[in-house]
Design goal:
By secondary structure, this protein is α/β, with parallel strands linked by helices. It contains 18 helices and 19 strands.
């Protein structure tokens, strides 16, 4: 069977590798000069620092298993620091533990954290006894959290975490697409906190297990190895203009939804119209290296989140050289600063000098850092984070059902579909390859 994969980000690479391992004759087409998409590791002040995602979830198997299959198991590393903070009410405050995606399971810990006011804590404490009914259907994360735990906790704790991951607002994000753990709990009982506590108590997961993994030389190591394994089956600088140009029995599109829509239009205008409904946020990630002797902040943690209500340019700051033991040195401190949210394109519109000045002002405000970096790197990711609106999974099901009817030899997938994390993208690519390979009797 001939399988063509279009797009060599992590999803497309995983799809191509999966199909090749299953015995297909595979070609992976990539329009740019490199594979890996937004997984990219480059040197900053002599350190391997990721320009995009720097970790993958440990609690799901897909990325870990792929690393093992590729012989990278010995290179898997865990964060050296687990504590994370939120900049709230004029100070960096540790996230209360335990929590699930920012929803606190211990209200005493919430009160001690100081992230929200005493009135906000009092409102949150009412949640287990509030009247209500289980979640039915889909709605925004913000609607559920505000209804159950109050506006202050939603704005200062849940939104910086989930909204920050998605470069969005929880008031616009589908709970089933962006926070299925919360959706499942909310659909089982009227109290979100009680159900999350029950699930935590019944979990067989070791609480000491790390939440995230990475690779010693950055996640670019994973995409580089996949590209190496594909060898001459990977065609760089090879844009695909028309699906009919491909010499293949099956085609997998692992591209952004708007690019996918353009290619799909000649074969299914209905699916193309549905794909165009998915919007994106643009973000910039600025990596900074400082002289360690000039940084007076302890950075005893992995970094911190910044609520949108604070009005700052930065959305998060990762203390990379504290978070990962393979980054930084006795002489160098490395940070990765995130900027940009959906509808907030200030960072994307600034030039490098203005963006650096805004970031330095925010670092001075949030952590008292008034030192200039000696090395910096600007990674601008335009339209990079898909926005999962309420009803998103129903939209994806409509796209898939329409294509199954109109173009059964075609699979479409990517971070815009069912999850944008590294592990989830790997899984989606593998599933697309398996679906293609399972249609043995289907003629294109």
């Amino acid at each position: 069977m001939k399988v063509a994969v279009v797009g060599a980000g992590i999803t497309g690479l995983a799809a191509g590798y999966e199909a090749a391992q299953a015995g297909a004759e595979v070609v992976v087409y990539e329009a740019t000069k490199r594979a890996g998409g937004r997984l990219l590791t480059t040197e900053l002040a002599g350190q391997p620092v990721d320009e995009g995602a720097d970790s993958f979830l440990a609690r799901v198997p897909w990325a870990t298993k792929l690393c093992q299959d590729l012989g990278l198991e010995a290179e898997i590393v865990t964060p050296a620091q687990q504590t994370a903070f939120v900049y709230s009410r004029g100070a960096l405050r540790a996230l209360p533990q335990p929590n699930v995606l920012g929803v606190p399971l211990d209200f005493d810990a919430l009160a001690v954290s100081g992230i929200i006011s005493s009135d906000g804590v009092h409102r949150a404490c009412q949640e287990p006894d509030l009247a209500g009914s289980p979640l039915i259907g889909d709605e925004s994360i913000g609607k559920l959290i505000r209804k159950r735990l109050g506006d202050e906790l939603a704005d200062q704790l849940v939104d910086p975490l989930i909204g920050g991951i998605n470069a969005s607002s929880i008031d616009h994000l589908s709970i089933w697409a962006a926070a299925p753990q919360l959706a499942e709990a909310a659909s089982r009982g009227h109290s979100l906190v009680r159900e999350l506590r029950r699930l935590a108590a019944s979990s067989t997961t070791n609480p000491a297990q790390p939440v995230f993994f990475s690779l010693r030389n950055g996640l670019g190591r994973l995409t580089d190895e996949l590209a190496n394994r594909l060898g001459d089956r990977l065609h760089l600088l090879s844009p695909v203009i028309k699906l009919n140009d491909l010499d293949a029995d099956r085609v997998i599109l692992a591209l952004p939804s708007d690019t996918t829509s353009t290619l799909v239009t000649p074969v299914s205008t209905t699916a193309a119209d549905l794909l165009r409904r998915i919007d994106y946020a643009s973000v910039a990630l600025v990596s900074l290296a400082f002289d360690a002797s000039k940084v007076n902040h302890p950075m005893a943690g992995s970094g911190y989140l910044v609520p949108a209500t604070e009005g700052l340019t930065i959305t998060a700051c990762s203390w990379a050289s504290s978070k990962w033991s393979h980054i930084g040195s006795a002489n160098t401190v490395v940070m990765r600063v995130s900027t940009g949210r959906y509808t907030d394109d200030r960072a994307m519109l600034m030039d490098d000098d203005d963006l650096l000045a805004a970031i330095q002002a925010d670092l001075a405000t949030t952590m008292g850092l008034d030192v200039k970096p000696h090395t910096m790197r600007f990674s601008r990711w335009k339209r990079s984070l898909p926005q999962y609106r309420p009803g998103h999974l129903e939209l994806i099901a409509d796209i898939e059902q329409t294509l199954a009817r109109d173009v059964p030899w075609l699979q479409v997938t990517g971070g815009w579909a069912r999850g944008l994390g590294v592990a989830t993208c790997i899984h989606q690519g593998q599933q697309a390859a398996r679906a293609s390979m399972s249609q043995n009797k289907l003629a294109r």
